[in-house]
From TrEMBL:
Record-annotated NB-ARC domain positions: 2-89
Keywords: Leucine-rich repeat
Gene3D superfamilies: Helical domain of apoptotic protease-activating factors (1.10.8.430), P-loop containing nucleotide triphosphate hydrolases (3.40.50.300)
Any one GO CC term of the record: cytoplasm
SUPFAM superfamilies according to UniProt: P-loop containing nucleoside triphosphate hydrolases
One function term, GO molecular function aspect: ADP binding
BP term (GO), one: defense response to other organism
Organism: Coffea arabica (Arabian coffee)
Protein name: Late blight resistance protein homolog R1A-3
Coiled coil keyword on record: no
Length: 204
């Protein structure tokens, strides 16, 4: 089904209906431009809510669209949220208090960054907190880029079984299992690892 066909089908299904549609975390205004024609103004109170982290994504037509900019957290609010996530109902450790200023600067008032950072720190040895916080503090980037960097760090600290594997990695794991069970024999001598398997020969 083409984009035009899909837009027409959405438009037809919403005809004479009252609806509330939420488009969450939109990164490209073109996505909205392609969809807008599907949402008819039937004069019955229907609404479309679009959320985005980027100001440029907000529709520029002020006559038909209202823009509401959410305020970022203050440094104190960011710190209170981090404390609530890390130590609900408990006193903070001196080690975390030493990092307060850096933590507040990293989060840049974004609740998502605060929550992610709290999750990262809670899963780590406290002796490693300073290294992680200082590593993020060295980035001279925008709040959005900082949020993405924190998300990437969160992903890196996931256990291996929770990370999405490339198809090559999955194939390599299966092949190693077959070799360990003697169902596949390496006929060409060499190192058996993820890098050299493609250069080895196998006998089934």
């Amino acid at each position: 089904m083409s984009e035009e066909d899909l837009a027409h089908q959405v438009k037809r299904s919403l005809l004479r209906k009252r609806y509330l549609i939420v488009l969450d975390d939109v990164w490209d205004i073109e996505a909205w431009n392609r969809l807008e024609a599907s949402f008819l103004d039937n004069g019955n109170g229907s609404r479309v809510i679009l959320t985005s982290r980027l100001h440029d994504v907000a529709p520029q037509d002020k006559l038909h669209h209202e823009t509401h900019s959410l305020r970022q957290l203050t440094p104190d609010q960011s710190w209170d949220l981090l404390k609530a996530k890390l130590y609900p109902g408990k006193d903070l450790t001196p080690k975390l208090c030493e990092l307060q200023q850096q933590v507040v600067e990293i989060c840049q008032g974004l609740p998502l960054t605060v929550v992610i950072l709290a999750g990262i720190l809670s899963s780590m040895d406290r002796r490693d907190w300073k290294e992680v916080v200082e590593g993020l503090s060295l980035r001279n980037v925008s709040s959005i880029e900082q949020c993405i960097a924190t998300l990437e760090l969160s992903y890196k600290h996931l256990s291996d079984n929770l990370k999405h594997k490339r198809s090559e990695d999955v194939a390599n794991d299966y092949l190693m299992q077959l070799i360990s069970r003697n169902l596949v024999i390496v006929s060409k001598p060499g190192s058996i690892d993820g890098q050299s398997l493609s250069h080895s020969r196998f006998v089934v």
